[in-house]
Design brief:
The structure holds two protein chains of two kinds. Chain A has helices at residues 2-24, 28-42, 127-130, 135-138, 253-258, and strands spanning 47-57, 63-73, 78-85, 93-97, 100-105, 110-114, 139-149, 152-161, 171-177, 183-189, 195-209, 214-226, 233-242. Chain A is α+β, with helices and mostly antiparallel strands. Chain B is of the alpha+beta class. Chain B is elongated, with a radius of gyration of 30 Å. Classes of the chains: A alpha+beta, B alpha+beta.
Chain lengths: 261, 447
């Protein structure tokens, strides 16, 4: 009799838990909306500038540290990163215009075309880590479940690249804070399904954008862990984020070259 | 003639000290010349061997496919048709194979490297596997044994890879270990594959650091491309110097068959991505090259070496010429009375001229013969010792892991001829002067 009661209670709890989970689950439209919201919260309609400190740790114990300035003009799909420190790297920069990514090497005075997936200065960071979030445009989203990431309740969403999307990672999983709707964790996998990178966003800043007329959320820090070359990691700290208009002629090769003269 | 040789030989013997010093100088320069030629020749031969083993046929039908204006991939569609055209157009080919070309990051638990990925069909690669040998464990592992592990036959098994000793050392991999290959698929998205190391081959010069080999199917899956695609069709010829003519013939044949063919650009395919990406066309264009084009980025090594050799040898030759001229002047002065006497008893000017020139030629021939003999013994001794090259810079320069020099009979013969001619020419002017002496004046001067 007691055993029967235990089984019944267990079944009842299971149903309750399952229905609770079902209630919390997002349907397809809600998941799509969530991803749109994630993009929208980060979208700055005007220009963007910030100082970034990139710290690369290799599994052999070696480290590299860089300081750079990042500039964006999302309306024209333009992006640029200009290295300022260390001295040996000062003047080096990446410029993305018309969907082409170029690397400028001041010591050689040469420009070199890079693939969109190229790592930035040999670190685990890539151009899209610093660029506008376009998840809703580039990916189809599927709700995986609600779970806890540390103490934060999160929505876990799986993104699959749309057929003609020009993205490096075909499969992305996101852990989105249920309360703030900021991304807390991101995992990227290859077409083969192998996990390549895990990225954590431990903190976000809120800023008012005049051009947008509302708040914009920018990550304070990004921690990237290489899942294939275990032990390699990159920490990107973003400071002095400004959403004020930049010079009209900034996103040119000439401007970037002039910074190292 | 025999009299002339006899006189020349006796004259050389008479001036023993001068002959010895001058002969020694000629011998040293001849040794140096032979040595430099052997170095240059061994580097050239290793280059051809490396290139035609690892990355190129004597003639290569490669190309690019552009699905977007700003992108280019080293992929050819219509693989079967292209191979058929090549086979028909080059009946003299000793072999026609095709390989997929790729580039990726090779990751092991210990380290990672970037390398070219070659997708091969095992059954077609007899020439390739025949030119390789399995590496001894000591070549890639500290305190390793002389035992070899794995086998090239294991490359028939799916998802296996052949790597080279230098790579295994850096990645700390052994036969049977797994590595991960990360690259971008044809759509630009990341893709990976895990491969098992089936064999570790001895390095083929430094260029083997940049290549790994796996099954064609692995590359097809990795890049998500269809089965009728390839990277390059490689044509092997019995006569490598026919490569340019065959390439031109193929260029015309492909154009006649409706293929778009790029202008000849004597550079390896991986140096053309930026140029092709910037061009305003879509679809496929063939790119025909010969073996030397695919390694043009390292040909500067032999060119530089040949240039330095030429300068060194020219300088030394000038010194020798100066020495021989001086020596002949002295000889003429010392033997003025002898010249006068010989002329007085009826010898013609030509005889006097020949006498001195023969003397110089004999000196050059004997001394360079001695130098060539010494140089050959040293080279053969070095080759026999199998001295490993441990310095990376030296390995890059010599394109080999052991110190070996190429010594051919043609080098020996040409060195002997060259130095005999140089010494003969150097003696020409003093000999002419001697021949022009009037007998009376010569007899008077000789008093």
């Amino acid at each position: 009799m007691l055993r029967m009661k235990t089984v019944t209670l267990g079944m009842t709890l299971s149903v309750a838990l399952l229905s609770g989970k079902a209630l919390a689950a997002l349907d397809e439209a809600q998941t799509k909306e969530l991803i749109k919201l994630v993009d929208e919260r980060q979208r700055a309609t005007g220009d963007y500038a910030s100082v970034v400190f990139i710290d690369q740790k290799e599994k052999d114990g070696s480290t590299k540290a860089f300081e750079a300035r990042v500039y964006r003009r999302d309306a024209d799909d333009k992006w640029m990163i200009l290295f300022t420190k260390p001295k040996a790297e000062a003047g080096k920069g990446y410029l993305r215009v018309e969907k082409n990514l170029f690397l400028y090497e001041p010591s050689l005075g040469k420009w070199e075309r890079q693939t969109e997936r190229a790592s930035i200065a040999g670190t685990n960071s890539r151009r899209d880590d610093f660029d506008e979030s376009r998840l809703a445009i580039e990916y189809d989203a599927k709700f995986i479940g609600d779970e806890k990431l540390g103490k934060f309740p999160v929505h876990r969403v799986k993104l699959t690249a749309k057929p003609n999307a020009d993205v490096a990672s075909p499969i992305v999983e996101l852990w989105v804070d249920q309360e703030s709707k900021n991304i807390l964790k991101r995992q990227e996998s290859a077409l083969s399904g192998k996990l390549l990178r895990t990225t954590y966003y431990p903190g976000w800043d809120k800023m008012f954008s005049k051009s947008k007329g509302s708040d914009v959320y920018v990550p304070k820090e990004i921690r990237v862990f290489d899942e294939v070359e275990k032990g390699n990691s990159t920490t990107v700290v973003l400071r002095d984020v400004k959403l004020d208009p930049l010079d009209a002629n900034m996103f040119t090769k000439a401007w970037l070259e002039s910074q190292s003269r | 003639m025999l009299t002339m040789l006899n006189i020349a030989f006796r004259n050389l013997l008479q001036a023993k000290r001068r002959t010895l010093l001058l002969g020694l100088a000629v011998a040293i320069v001849a040794t140096l010349f032979l040595f430099l030629r052997a170095v240059s020749s061994s580097i050239s031969e290793r280059m051809i061997e490396s290139a035609t083993t690892l990355s190129a046929g004597h003639v290569n039908v490669g190309g690019f496919f552009k699905i977007r204006k700003k992108a280019s991939a080293p992929i050819l569609s219509e693989r079967t048709r292209i191979r058929d055209i090549v086979t028909k157009a080059v009946p003299e080919a000793s072999g026609v194979i095709d390989r997929h070309r790729g580039w990726g990051r090779i990751i092991s638990p210990a380290s990672s490297i970037n390398a070219g990925v070659n997708g091969i069909n095992y059954n077609e690669e007899g020439r390739f596997f025949k030119s390789l040998r399995l590496a001894k464990e000591s070549e890639y592992k500290k305190d390793g044994t002389d035992q070899t592990f794995g086998s090239f036959e294991d490359m028939q098994k799916p998802n296996t890879a052949l790597i080279f000793a230098g790579q295994a050392k850096k990645l700390e991999l052994r036969v049977g270990d797994s590595l991960t290959l990360v690259t971008e698929a044809s759509g630009g998205q990341d893709n990976t594959v895990d491969l098992r190391v089936a064999a570790i081959a001895s390095d083929v010069g430094f260029m083997s650091n940049w290549s790994i080999f796996t099954q064609r199917q692995v590359v097809l899956d990795l890049y998500r491309v269809g089965p009728d695609t390839t990277g390059v069709v490689m044509v092997y010829l019995d006569e490598a110097d026919q490569a340019t003519a065959v390439m031109e013939r193929l260029r015309k044949t492909f154009a006649d068959n409706g293929f778009l063919v790029m202008d000849h650009d004597p550079n390896p395919f991986f140096m053309k991505f930026e140029k092709v990406s910037g061009e305003d066309w879509l679809g496929q264009k063939l790119d025909l090259t010969i073996w030397s084009d695919e390694i043009s980025f390292v040909l500067w090594i032999t060119n530089a070496l040949d240039f330095i050799s030429a300068i060194v040898i020219t300088l030394l030759a000038v010194i020798i010429i100066g020495g021989i001229m001086n020596s002949m002047w002295m000889s003429v002065r010392e033997r003025t009375k002898e010249i006068g006497t010989v002329r007085a008893i009826g010898a013609q000017r030509g005889f006097i001229l020949q006498m001195f020139v023969f003397e110089a030629i004999m000196l050059g021939f004997l001394a360079s013969g001695l130098g060539v003999l010494f140089g050959s013994i040293v080279i053969l001794a070095i080759n026999g010792m199998n001295i490993p090259i441990t310095n990376d810079g030296m390995r890059l320069f010599m394109m080999a892991n052991t110190l070996k020099f190429s010594l051919h009979p043609s080098q020996i013969v040409s060195t002997l001829i060259l130095f005999s001619v140089i010494t003969g020419l150097a003696a020409l002017y003093p000999a002419l002067k001697a021949a022009r002496l009037r007998p009376v004046e010569a007899l008077m001067q000789g008093k």
